[in-house]
């Protein structure tokens, strides 16, 4: 059971890392949907590329 959970979590973190590397390299998959916005559509967060890379490396 522990081995299955470990494998599942590893896969989840790998997918998250790949998504962050995609954003770092200029990809837009899921980028707009993941950032909070105000009612007028203005983004609340504007992450810098180095922060996205840091998150990708963290996973």
What characteristics describe this protein?
single chain, about 60 residues, mainly alpha, 3 helices, about 65% helix, elongated
Give an account of the 3D structure.
By secondary structure, the protein is mainly α. The chain has one domain. Helices cover 63% and strands 0% of the residues. Helix 1 packs antiparallel against helix 3. The longest helix has 23 residues. It is elongated.
Number of helices: 3
How would you classify the helix and strand content by structural class? Answer: mainly alpha
Domain unit count:
1
List unreliable stretches of 5+ residues.
Answer: none
What percentage of the residues does DSSP assign to strands (E)? Answer: under 5%
Global mean pLDDT: 88
DSSP E strands, number:
0
Report the order of strands and helices: HHH
CA distance, first residue to last residue: 23 Å
Shape: elongated
Q: Whole-number radius of gyration?
A: 14 Å
Helix content bin = 55-70%
Largest sheet: none
In short:
This protein is mainly alpha-helical. 63% of the residues lie in helices and 0% in strands.
Topology:
Blueprint: H1 2-24, H2 31-34, H3 49-58
């Amino acid at each position: 059971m522990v081995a299955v959970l470990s494998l599942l979590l590893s896969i989840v973190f790998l997918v998250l890392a790949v998504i962050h590397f995609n954003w770092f390299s200029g990809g837009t998959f899921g980028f707009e949907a993941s950032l909070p916005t105000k009612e007028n559509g203005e983004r609340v967060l504007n992450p810098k590329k180095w922060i996205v890379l840091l998150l990708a490396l963290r996973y």
